[in-house]
From TrEMBL, chains A, B:
<feature type="region of interest" description="Disordered">
    <location>
        <begin position="36"/>
        <end position="63"/>
    </location>
</feature>
<dbReference type="Pfam" id="PF00282">
    <property type="entry name" value="Pyridoxal_deC"/>
</dbReference>
<dbReference type="GO" id="GO:0016831">
    <property type="term" value="F:carboxy-lyase activity"/>
</dbReference>
<keyword id="KW-0456">Lyase</keyword>
<protein>
    <submittedName>
        <fullName>Pyridoxal phosphate-dependent decarboxylase family protein</fullName>
    </submittedName>
</protein>
<keyword id="KW-0663">Pyridoxal phosphate</keyword>
<feature type="modified residue" description="N6-(pyridoxal phosphate)lysine">
    <location>
        <position position="303"/>
    </location>
</feature>
<dbReference type="InterPro" id="IPR010977">
    <property type="entry name" value="Aromatic_deC"/>
</dbReference>
<keyword id="KW-0210">Decarboxylase</keyword>
<dbReference type="InterPro" id="IPR015424">
    <property type="entry name" value="PyrdxlP-dep_Trfase"/>
</dbReference>
<dbReference type="InterPro" id="IPR015421">
    <property type="entry name" value="PyrdxlP-dep_Trfase_major"/>
</dbReference>
<dbReference type="InterPro" id="IPR002129">
    <property type="entry name" value="PyrdxlP-dep_de-COase"/>
</dbReference>
<comment type="similarity">
    <text>Belongs to the group II decarboxylase family.</text>
</comment>
<dbReference type="InterPro" id="IPR015422">
    <property type="entry name" value="PyrdxlP-dep_Trfase_small"/>
</dbReference>
């Protein structure tokens, strides 16, 4: 072929003709990357004033040296979740094999759209989602489809729930006499609002159910809300329970919620995007009791299972319902008796083989390794909780159930209406002076410092640095 | 930390403590992978009877040796689009830098959900989508959001179109008196049906417009369909034109379609998932004339720009409409004046930094390199077309406009009702005997051999092998 204007390394020659040049480029990128990752603690958890290369398209190829320089700059300026002081969001450093699995997945560029385009990986995804559904106790007919992020998994599950209840695949919602409504706690993830909007239900269709002091849905409030909606002439069809709320990591009372769902004949979706990982901890999996009654579950290994993002899934207790209430066939795809074309069953069509990094992570860490990571983060969470309790000037947002703790500085000398600003300053101080990144969410109309103890290299010394910083800041900022 | 059960290489230590072990593992994976990719032409384009490892979760970590062995097996059994004989689907071998870009993106694990979680990469995505929107001539207020696949980009665009027309973000579709309908050609992509279903419009809301002999929407039929829908009491709100149909790669007449959209005040969405790449060819970009009138465009660099999947985008001529008609805020995310939180503007929330591999591909190939790849594939397409014309026993499905050609064997000695089976046997013969994979779509109620000339290493010799195989097969299978 004639590619005189293209770089020699543009593509990997399938005959090996440019093997040496490809190897040099790949090794240069790998060397530089591993160098930066192996020194991640020398950069800020969240760099400030990062340089951004121009988002333009050059006429001619740029040199590999230039590209390597830009890549180095991009990594240097990016969010740095590998830093042990990065404890602010549900964003992890990834497992090594999930990074390498993504390298392989991109290189072979298979397509989860159909079995023909991913013969091994489609089957692996079917098997592995069945395995995970079984971990949640969803029964013998359960299975699922991976999704590039939890928002899509929630959208997928609610789409099936809606179609199951109203049979609107063909005719749509316009003809319905009464409005479908679904129920979820007032602190549930905003992706549910987005899903309701996209699904044509509208955000008003999401009824926010009151929570208790620890951000857990009140069963009595749920029951009341469902009955009120019926009285208002709406049609309740679904309740979404959360296992791991975004801000404080709390778990709705799954057995009580599922009982109410059952009484009112509602689809039960459990958004276990974050908390689903607990199923891999012998010590903590009991916290998910009740999830086995779900009709569908969202679970994101991209969070507490440390798989590089994205890696999420929607699981269904009855995959026949998924087939009957969602599937749209494509005329250009060959079918297969045993393994479905997954692109016909999910919200996405063409999709990366994200199953590879998930599978590799399970194989490389084992259930034991995952369990240990989870148990260790509980230990650190208890330590954070104790630090907060030891400080008269700090208050806790809710009792931790997972590895999230929200607290704030609330010293007597600071008037209540100035405490949001105080905590904003404290957050910036911790980042700039202590190399600790905590996030600053709004929760119950106030700003909180949010700690997510995911990083495997965070230890007591990190926590000491955090609370030493709090002490010094409050002494300096105080009266 | 105490991770006695975990492998030493589970995570990359940010202090460099396990740098040597990590380097060994990464180099072993890279060596094996490059070895397999550099010999891709020695494997079948589509292996048969592939081995699939067990989709289970072991109790204890498995050895790295075992994992490398399994990885080798997975790659060996997967779809092999790097083989020059893989000319059957819109699945490419990826650019080298897009594979390496995915490695880096996974390693730093940034999150396009918010600026705080991807400070450099969010800004790069905003810049680059603006650059591409400008290539399409969408105007000074245009921009967009990347999506993990074209189905999501179409869903995103139609969601905004629907909300723009009916203002249903809060209240949903149930209250509408009349049914919204949208128009697209009878051969448009099934993701539009899926989008209509997910959006609560229902698949019936997608009106299939008749096409001409070359699979292009007939403007007169569109006009008629819109007027008919109005007479039927429906509310037309959108027309989707296709630039690059899935089966035959044809382009709807964009200027005529946009004129009709204008007359009837319809949102014009152009699904240029495949054909959008033409904008990078000086010789061929005129085929997209008219796209500048679009309200939204889907474009997938994961196809003809050779970026590892997934990499797609929804572009909007007026990003204010996107802000006003789609955005749902999240209380746990910090805003930024200049750069939006992209997770609030797209269908996905948490999302990989797929912009990195896209940006790297542009930098590494340049506009010249991309243009050359496109022009070269036109040259080969003409050669395939000539081969078909030279064979009395072969017929063409439609006149090629891009790098797709559908043809079939239709020898006199084979009765018309046996020709589907004949072409099925021919497809399998080409794969098993000639190492040529063509796909076998159903198009106009018949099976066709579909050639997609994407692979940069496919050349005349490959085409000779294809048509030699056709000759030998028809001689042997014939009367």
């Amino acid at each position: 072929m004639n590619r005189s204007n293209s770089p020699e390394t543009g593509f990997i020659d399938p005959s090996g003709a440019n093997a040496e040049a490809i190897r040099h480029l790949a090794e240069d990128v790998l060397d530089q990357l591993l160098g930066q990752l192996g020194a991640a603690e020398d950069r800020s958890p969240l760099p400030d004033e990062s340089a951004v290369p121009a988002g333009t398209i050059p006429e001619s190829p740029r040199s590999q040296t230039d590209l390597l320089g830009d890549l180095e700059t991009i990594v240097a300026g990016s969010m740095n979740p590998a830093h042990p002081g990065y404890i602010g969001h549900m964003d992890t450093m990834p497992t090594t094999v999930s990074v390498l699995g993504d390298l392989v997945a991109s290189a072979i560029n298979n397509n989860m759209l159909s079995v023909e385009m991913s013969p091994v990986l489609s089957e692996l995804e079917v098997q592995l989602t069945e395995t995970i559904a079984s971990e949640f106790g969803l029964g013998p007919d359960a299975g699922g489809v991976l999704a590039s992020g939890g928002s899509l998994a929630n959208l997928h599950a609610l789409s099936v729930a809606r179609n199951h209840a109203f049979d609107v695949q063909g005719g749509g919602l316009t003809g319905l006499a009464r409005e479908p409504v679904l129920f979820t706690s007032e602190v549930a993830h905003t992706s549910l609002q987005k899903a309701a909007m996209v699904l044509g239900l509208g955000t008003d269709a999401v009824v926010a159910v009151e929570t208790d002091a620890d951000s857990r849905m009140k069963p009595s409030a749920l029951n009341h809300a469902v009955e009120q909606a019926e009285r208002d002439g709406h049609v309740p069809f679904c309740v979404v329970a959360t296992a791991g709320t975004t801000t404080t990591g709390n778990i709705d009372p799954l057995p009580a919620v599922s009982e109410i769902a059952d009484e009112h004949d509602l689809w039960l979706h459990v958004d276990a995007a974050y908390g689903g990982a607990l199923v891999f901890s012998g010590a903590e999996r009991g916290r998910l009791d009740g999830i086995e009654a779900a009709d569908s579950v969202t679970f994101n290994p991209q969070k507490w299972c440390y798989v590089a993002k994205t890696c999420a899934m929607a699981l269904f207790a009855d995959t026949d319902v998924l087939q009957e209430k969602f599937r749209i066939g494509a005329p250009y795809m060959r079918g297969d008796d045993a393994i479905p074309n997954l692109g016909e069953l999910g919200v996405q069509g063409t999709r990366r083989a994200e199953v590879l990094k998930l599978w590799l992570t399970f194989q490389h860490l084992g259930r034991d390794g995952l369990g240990q990571l989870i148990d260790e983060s509980y230990r650190l969470t208890a330590a954070v909780r104790d630090h907060v309790a030891d400080h008269d000037t700090l208050e806790l947002a809710s009792e931790p159930e997972m590895n999230l703790v929200c607290f704030r500085a609330a010293p007597d000398w600071c008037p209540p209406d100035e405490r949001d600003a105080l905590n904003g300053r404290l957050q910036r101080y911790l980042l700039s002076e202590q190399e600790i990144f905590v996030s600053l969410p709004t929760y119950r109309d106030a700003r909180w410092l949010r700690v997510v103890l995911l990083n495997p290299f965070t230890d007591e010394a990190t926590l000491d640095r955090l609370f030493d910083g709090v002490d010094v800041f409050l002494d300096a900022d105080g009266p």
